[in-house]
Predict the structure.
Amino acid sequence: MLAGTGSDVGKSILAAAFCRIFKQDGYNPAPFKAQNMALNSYATPEGLEIGRAQAVQAEAAGIPCHTDMNPLLLKPSSDHTSQVVLNGKPIGNKDAYDYWRRGTSEIDFRKEVCDAFDRLVTKYNPIVLEGAGSIAEINLKDRDLVNLSMARHANADVILVGDIDRGGVFASVYGSIALQTPKDRKLIKGIIINKFRGDMRLFEEGRKMLEEICGVPVLGVVPYYKDIYIEEEDSVSLEKKQRELAEGKVNVAVVLLRHISNFTDFDTLERDPRVNLFYTNNVADISRADIIILPGTKATLDDLLELRRNGCAQAIQHAHRDGKTVVGICGGYQMLGQVVSDPNGIEGTIASLPGLGLLPIHTTMTHEKTTRQVTFQFEGQTCQGYEIHQGVSNTNETIMQTDHCIGTYIHGFLDNVPVIEHLLKQHQTANNHPQIAISHAAFKEEQYDKLAAHVRKYVDVDKLYQILIHD
């Protein structure tokens, strides 16, 4: 198990790395995270929903993703409530307080996640478990489903991951271990210090000091990397992507929604050397961009109302009238239509709102959720993606195009070369020629191998195997 001193310390990325390392070494690994809280999700081959991070880890392991890898997914819909997805299917919304209180649910979530792990362990070895947040949230310890209680059920060796980049790594690592019960403390077999910057030799003394005060070996100090591209799990990374407009590039503005979901839709486009992609809710930035993208959202009506309040809706409409390209994906596609209605209060108290009026569709929110992988044709070529959305629109078209406006329910739409070339060709300049693109799948395989090589270089993998085999 990769457990953490806090959120965003790199557990998901390291779990993906070890999935690839174990695969390279001849094993048959699989990822597992009992409970994930994220708006980034993915459709399994069976048409069920799991956290995107576990789908990425399954790719790194070279296996199809399955709901047993992430049996419980919480998708925040407000500051206090989340949609609960159990074994790939939504079962309703839960208030955070009620969810965390014992005895308030008719479903035994602990049994559900343990059963999923037990099924997974009969098919794969080793299982790479991922914890959530900090393992030292002692006020929630008796209700923990995903950290050390799951490690106990799985009889897992726990590797504690600390983020040195944010500072305070000695206190966070030592405190995370010291706050455990004696029984749980014994489960922690190693420490990995992540996101190191600078000269590694300067931390040698610190490494020894950590081992002395914690009584646990430091298996590695992993440097921060910039040239490996693995999909991010948390939207906190978007705060670093609010860049300025750039001359000589195709400027792509992704509208920064409060409930943005599946923002990994834009990773491939962001890496294109012809593109300067940034996230913004600034009206001036939207008006100056070449392409404006309305992304997916967990709360279409709430975000649509906010776009009208902050002026972004009008800025998008004006940009479209000025000949700029507008793209809507999933919830963003719904917003580009004529009306979004929620007569049954699926999302909340807003019954209906006019859309931006750029596409001739009407959307109604429904209890049923569409979750599936899809194949589609674009400019004569076969492309792939997946759908995860609440609500139905009055059209049978997978992709709707009007004059410089495209809408679709398909996530992964922009991972396909024909789609990217279609979008960028009208914005080409003399210094901005079409690139020779490798396939998205081949690119990801290359990145998983680079990630594995990076972690092998800085983590004592032989020592890790000794820990696993000894136990």
